[in-house]
Amino acid sequence: MVDLHTHSTASDGEKSPSQLVLCAKESGLSVLALTDHDTLDGLEEAQKAAKEAGLVFVPGIELNIQWPTGEFHLLGLGFKEVSASMKALLKKLKNNRIERNKKILAALENDGLQVNYDEFARSQTAFHAEESLGRPHIAAYMVQKGLVKNRQKAFDKYLSKGTPFFVDFEGADLEEAVKAVLDSGGLPVLAHPLSLYVGWGKIQGVLEGIRQKGVLGLEAWHPGAKENDCRRLEKMAREMGFFVTAGSDYHGPNVRGDRKLGKTAGGYKIDDRYYFEELLPRL
Fold first, then answer.
1. CA triplet 130, 136, 139: central angle to 5 degrees?
2. CA geometry: angle 206, 276, 237, nearest 5 deg
3. Beta bridge partners of 189
């Protein structure tokens, strides 16, 4: 059993990188990838813990890509180094993320809520790097302040697209992100493709355009999709020349309790072949 899409406290996950590795070991995984949002901060700790636990570790990242509908996340899997192009890209995304957070919190404060950016940053950076803070952390901060009952309420009323306080995040250019991943010795993979919000009638053409920009793999299996849709995506991916991956997108039981390490759509265990037959031969 493997898992090629997980998160730690280096971004918006609940468990530290080393805790995540121990949970993966206890869950019976043989291969684990850590793919935190727009940061590589947790990789060193996770790699050391994985070596001690006897797990195969895949250093990775999940990059936010600029996209007109839905959301486009690009996984980079199997880094050998951190290239200059990756460092430059992450610096840009860090600044974009901080500016977005400041705008959201300023809008909330202007509306009369007792929040401010400096207090938010202090309350969250004990657990997370400032460059990886985002809306989930603002939601947690609002819960801490007693402004909302839970994170979902914060999103529903204040943070989701369509609310008065939503601010778009300026993601990376796809070709720039692909280059940064390849320069670092990794493989670019389109995460949860249905999040692009493209209908089945148009998705093949869209995926072909993404493939032509250098994306090599497609995460066909994700717990946010239906099993039949995952099978359809896997078949389409192979016909188009992508290799296929699968992941849990695990964040932790108190963040996304419906997602379990090593399991994907339909609660299926992620088969070893998604690493040993799909990813490893290309690394």
1. 105
2. 15
3. 75, 217
Closest by CA position to 40, among listed 186, 175, 169: 186
Q: Give the pLDDT confidence score for residue 122 in this predicted structure.
A: 87
Q: What pLDDT sits at residue 236?
A: 97
Predicted confidence at residue 257, as pLDDT, reads 80
- Residues in the chain predicted with pLDDT less than 70, given as ranges, are 125-131
CA distance 72 to 190: 8
Q: What predicted TM-score, i.e. pTM, was given to this entire model? A: 0.91
Alpha-carbon distance 252 to 6, whole Å?
A: 9
Using alpha carbons, select from 162, 217, 171 the residue that is nearest to residue 193.
Answer: 217
Tokens of 178: 């692909």
Return the structure tokens found at 25.
Answer: 């070991």
Q: Model confidence over 128-169: pLDDT tens digits?
A: 666 678 898 899 899 999 999 998 999 999 999 889 999 988
Q: Angle between the 84-110 and 174-183 helix axes, to the nearest 10 degrees? A: 130
Using the CB atoms, write b or e for 165-180: b if 16+ within 10 Å. Answer: bebebebbebebbbbb
Are the beta carbons of 48 and 41 closer than 8 angstroms? Answer: no
Q: State how far Cα 1 lies from the chain centre.
A: 20
Average confidence score pLDDT of the chain: 94
- What residue type is assigned to position 199 of the chain? G
